[in-house]
Amino acid sequence: MINKIVSTPAEAVSTVKDGSVVMISGFGEAGSPIELIHALIDHGARDLTVISNNTGSGHVGLAALIENRQVAKMICSFPRTANSRVFPELYKNGEIELELVPQGTLAERIRAGGAGIPAFYTPASVDTPLGEGKEERVFDGQKYVMEYALSADYALVKCQTADRYGNLLYNKTARNFGPVMCTAAETSIVQSRNIVQAGDIDPETVVTPGIFVDSVVEVADPADESKLVAEDRRYPW
Hints:
Elements: E1 5-6, H1 9-12, E2 21-24, H2 34-43, E3 48-51, H3 62-67, E4 71-76, H4 87-92, E5 97-100, H5 103-115, E6 119-122, E7 136-139, E8 142-148, E9 152-163, E10 168-169, H6 178-184, E11 185-196, E12 215-218, H7 225-230
Parallel strand pairs: 1-12, 2-3, 2-9, 3-4, 4-5, 9-11, 11-12
Antiparallel strand pairs: 6-8, 7-8, 9-10
Helix pairs in contact: 5-6
């Protein structure tokens, strides 16, 4: 019988190794798998390359993982936001690497990784510093830059509802990068606000099919990242 449910976030991330490439869902504070990230902090894996939309907020979640010096490189679109307090200082001091990617290009690089497409062309970074040194081609008189797909060893994703097969539903904009990250990772680890019985999810509404998910852990009352950031809480709390 297929059953991808695990008991705790700690168990879910226990196989993550030093040097792994880890995709982490979230757009700002929406869809960020806070409990999985903090389980990864406790787990202690280091020298990670993290692919995410941004670098976290305040001193919790992804920002806490970075602050704990477990991330060697970030691949993201927004390394500095209004509440990004950790990454800018480490980057300025040369303590972390950054690969900056336009947001649409980031999403498409991840989608391509999941679809088995090794590279594609986009006009997004033509004649900008982000396009320097990259292959260019002209199609119908328009210049395009070649970008390589992104894949990962692990994806840490947050969803609203899951079943034991790993079928997932998301909560509105908290869906963001979760579905494409699940397809592009060798191992997808998901925290879900609730886990329902097999058959309770209408197959026509499934966003991420269970074939792309390896483990699911229920976190019924996930941390409110915006509240923790506002309170300037630090890990551990």
